[in-house]
Amino acid sequence: MIVCSSEHVEMVVDIYESVDSVRDHDPDTEKEDADAERRLEAHHTGKGCFYFKSSFYCMSKETKSWEESRHDCSSRGADLVIINSREEQEFISQQLGGFEAWIGLSDRDREGEWKWVDGTPLTTEYWDSGQLGNTGDEDCAEIYYSDSNKVVWNDKKCSEKLHWICEKRLSQ
Ligand SMILES: [Ca+2]
Ligand SMILES: [Ca+2]
Ligand SMILES: [Ca+2]
């Protein structure tokens, strides 16, 4: 289990800043782009956050409400993770260990209308069908290991305190 402890906040900020510098850079060729990504990967692998395709991720060591978790990501220039593909779902699953974590998905604006934090509607979904119920006004989504040993999503009360995963995209 890779986590970012609070002692490593400075390191995390460094990582996000270096992502910014790479993203702002406008490489002339695809090769330069690939080189930059390889350098970042070599530099950051094993330092508490993880890198997959064109994003950096960081899993919290602390637990917070969904809103506070999102604020933590924003303060680092990132946002709660948006799961765009099966590959990303599987990658996050591998990093999760036994943890439950907030993801950047909620139906807080309108009940039953799930949206990612960047405003995009839900396309690929991995709900734990037995758990998606809005029981007691559950408007935020977590990712976790279900009883059937699959990594799925559940709607949960936004005020509950969970770990969370920030994502910073390197390119669009
Ligand atoms: Ca993503
Ligand atoms: Ca709901
Ligand atoms: Ca639920």
From TrEMBL:
Pfam families: Lectin_C
A single MF term (Gene Ontology): carbohydrate binding
InterPro entries: C-type_lectin-like, C-type_lectin-like/link_sf, C-type_lectin/snaclec_domain, C-type_lectin_CS, CD209-like_CTLD, CTDL_fold
Domain C-type lectin: 52-167
Keywords: Disulfide bond, Lectin
Taxonomic superkingdom: Eukaryota
Record's protein name: C-type lectin domain-containing protein
